[in-house]
Amino acid sequence: MLDDEELSVFITKAQSGDAMAKEYILKENINLVRSIVHRFANRGYEWDDLFQIGCIGLIKSIDRFDKSFNVKFSTYAVPMIIGEIRRFMRDDNPIKVSRPIKDIAYKVHKTQECLQGILGRDPTVHEIAAKIDLAPQEIVAALEAVQPIISLYEPTMNDRGDQLFLLDQIKASDCLENCNLEKIAIQEILKDLSEKERNVIMLRFYKDKTQAEIAKMIGLSQVQVSRIEKQALKRIRMLL
After folding, report:
1. What is the H or E stretch that residue 156 is in?
2. Residue 87 neighbours by CB under 8 Å, 6+ apart
3. Could you read off the pLDDT of 133-175 as tens digits, one per residue?
4. DSSP state of 2
């Protein structure tokens, strides 16, 4: 590997248009790309494709590296390579994300790369937010929207030779607890309804009866049942 002084000379030549110098830097740092690509294995992409994208990130690192950043070239190149691979995965995502959110995410990634070079570390969400004048919540939402999809059958670890998948580590109790809390809340609210409203709601949503069927059962017109249902739902929403 080149020492920092030698590498600095080659980078200066490469940025001045010396193709041989750029190629030499690429060869000297190709293992860096390989090690990063291995992090993204088993995500549904060909290794060769990710390797080529990683090389593009390395080339961009050579073109954009500024010695005034006062960081090692590899420190600057790693997030650039990772960012290039993540952008490729994001743009290839089967879930369609709106263009404004993609634009925000792209702006965030560009700002992140810029701040990484200046700070010599990963910037915080608040530092990025201050730089591009956006709320931290907007940044987090945009970055989450463009994350690559992970299969529930994504291998996460091995336990005594048995492969464990993401599905095995998903906890169902949170959903069950929330559902139970909602049921308890609705049961309490039903007690605050009038007897007529409660009967209509029970028949309509718990017994799966139509408004016409309910009207015959309780001796009212369908219009009256519809009015009672609307009033009851409005009251339930208010109490919730």
Report:
1. strand 155-159
2. 106, 109
3. 888 888 888 888 777 666 666 666 655 656 666 665 555 555 5
4. -
State whether CATH 1.10.10.10 applies to domain 173-239.
Answer: yes
85 touches 55 (CB < 8 A): no
Q: Tens digits of per-residue pLDDT, 1-27?
A: 566 778 888 888 888 888 898 899 899
Beta bridge partners of 158: 163
Give the predicted TM-score (pTM) of the model: 0.42
CB 43 within 8 A of CB 92: no
- Matching residue, tokens 């028949």: 203
Query: What is the CATH class of 4-145?
Result: mainly alpha
Which residues lie below 8 Å from residue 234, measured CB to CB, with a gap of 6+?
A: none
CA distance 142 to 127: 16
Number of residues written out for the chain: 240
